[in-house]
Every structure is written in C-alpha cells, then in structure tokens.
Amino acid sequence: MAEPDFEKAELLPVIAQDADNGDVLMLAYMNQEAWQETLKTGRVCYFSRSRNKLWRKGEESGNFQEVKEIYFDCDADTILVKINQVGGAACHVGYRSCFYRQIDPATGEVTVKGERIFDPDDVYKK
Amino acid sequence: MAEPDFEKAELLPVIAQDADNGDVLMLAYMNQEAWQETLKTGRVCYFSRSRNKLWRKGEESGNFQEVKEIYFDCDADTILVKINQVGGAACHVGYRSCFYRQIDPATGEVTVKGERIFDPDDVYKK
Fold this sequence. Notes:
Two copies of one chain form a homodimer.
Chain A: E1 12-18, E2 24-30, H1 32-41, E3 45-48, E4 53-56, E5 65-72, E6 79-85, E7 101-103, E8 110-112, H2 120-123
Parallel strand pairs in A: 1-6
Antiparallel strand pairs in A: 1-2, 3-4, 5-6, 7-8
C-alpha cells in the first residue's frame, strides 16, 4: 500500500508535528480531497468535522502550516505531517500546541504547560 | 474541562510520542476504561478497534509503553502520551515508529525511513 487508504475511513487522523523541535502541535482530519490539496500546495489542508468542509489551516488566522515531510503509518490509516507553523501557534486558543494541558495521573490535577502566543480575540474576527 | 471528554466520542485518538527524543511512534484509541487503566497502572492501555477489547500494549510482545507524561488537547478529544517504549519498537511490523514510510508529495514515491528492530514472526506466535 503506497499511500494513506481513504477506503478504510473517509476521514483519517493527521498528526501535525513541528519539523524543527518535534513538538506535537495538533491532531485533525483529512479526507481524500484535503490530502490531495496538501500534496499539491505544500500547505496543510484538513477537513473540518464541525464545519463539514475543507479547512485550509491558516486561512483565517494567517497561521499556515508549511509541509516539510509527510509520513503514513503501518496500517495506512494515520498521517504524520512535519511542518513549519507560520506564526508560531497551531492552536485556535492561541497556544503553540493544542496539547498545552498536562494531567497528573496520580491526582488528576491539570497544569497548563504551553505559552500563549496570541489572543484569539485579536486574530479571529467574530 | 479538566480531562479528556469521552462523551464526545466513545473512542478518542491517542498519540504516543517517545519521551526522550520526541519521535511520534504510533496512534491508537482509548475508551474511558482504557484511559482509567492507563492512569492507574502507568502503562499505556488502548482499546483495540479490530479486536473490540482493551489492548494492553505489550501484553503479547513484551514491548510495554511506560507513561512519562500525559497531555490532552484544547477540544479535550485527543490525548498525547509521552512514553518510554520498552524494547524500542512500537510498531507491530517491527519498526521503532509506525510512521516509517515517507511519501514524496511531488512524485508520490514512498521511502522507508525507519530501522527494523524486530522480526514480527519471532515476537508474535501465530
């Protein structure tokens, strides 16, 4: 199998990882069309499950994701993109990574680990 | 929201990342029960979609995943575990990472990037 298999599922999960420092920035989904567009343009395009349409990451915020490398997994049902995150923040609430909350397994206590890069109110005009 | 939200979906995707070098090793799923067991035991427990039951990673191969840190994302519907991969290989076909295949966006050519740590025939008795 020489590429992700969209026959297994219409939407495949995509992990976006910072190409420079290896931080996992976010997880979202692609359909076949988003996948093709990503390959063609070199900018990551997802499929938004909530809006039910193609989601050209950064089209509103300007925080595009430039593709550096693309991998897929043994089962051909998950994609890993190594990217350059323009603007420094992948998360819609303004953190570099969506995974900015750490949970202590023993206590359940949550600690915010990430730094806030932008204020979403300034970026997304409601 | 102070923990992953299993009301959003019965199964949430989980990214396993090498705690030492940041490599993304695999993506699998947890249900509430797998999540609770992971917190309690300090070893990653997934829910296998193909076998439809809890999947104590390493129970067959001995390649356990020891939890170092746990994060969850802004939408509380994806989990990131930073782990120590016992045995060195997370992938059932014997690679360190399941993401051992890189695809060239321009040509579609696939290159194997990972090193094979074990031969699955030696590890999984059929």
